[in-house]
Design goal:
- The chain is globular and about 40 Å long.
- It has one domain.
- It is of the alpha+beta class.
- It has helices spanning 50-62, 104-112, and strands spanning 18-20, 23-29, 39-43, 69-79, 82-91, 96-102.
- A hairpin with a 4-residue loop joins β5 (82-91) and β6.
- The termini are far apart.
C-alpha cells in the first residue's frame, strides 16, 4: 500500500536565482505576457529597485539590451488595487511584445522601510 500522494507546489514559469550582497531577489508568477500571467517582483536586495530588478530579469530572459531588444515604452498601471509595470519591447527581429511585472508587493515592502 502506498502513502498519500504529495503534490509539489506549482513552480514559477519564470524562475530566477539571484543572490546579491544584502538579500535575495524574490520573483514568482508567469511569463509576463498578460496581467493574469505577470512576473511578480516580491522582494529585491537592499539597493536594488523594482525597475532595476525588471531590467535584470529582461536581460536574463531576452539577452543583452540594445543588441537583442529595446524598450519602446514603459507605463505603470493600477488594476484592481494592484500595480503593474508594463514594458513595450521590440526584439531584434522586429517583433513587438508587452512584458508585464506586478510590483504591488515590492511597493508595499518599500513603503514600510
Amino acid at each position: 500500500m502506498h502513502g498519500p500522494r504529495v503534490q509539489s507546489p506549482p513552480r514559477s514559469l519564470f524562475t530566477v536565482d539571484l543572490s546579491i550582497n544584502e538579500g535575495t531577489l524574490v520573483v514568482t508568477g508567469g511569463l509576463g505576457d498578460s496581467i493574469a500571467n505577470a512576473i511578480v517582483i516580491k522582494k529585491t536586495p537592499k539597493g536594488l529597485s523594482a525597475a532595476g530588478a525588471e531590467m535584470l530579469l529582461l536581460e536574463q530572459r531576452l539577452g543583452p539590451r540594445g543588441e537583442r531588444w529595446q524598450i519602446k515604452g514603459m507605463s505603470s498601471e493600477q488594476i484592481s488595487s494592484r500595480t503593474y509595470d508594463v514594458y513595450a519591447i521590440r526584439l531584434s527581429d522586429g517583433t513587438e511584445r508587452a512584458i508585464i511585472f506586478d510590483v504591488t508587493e515590492w511597493l508595499s515592502r518599500a513603503a514600510r522601510i
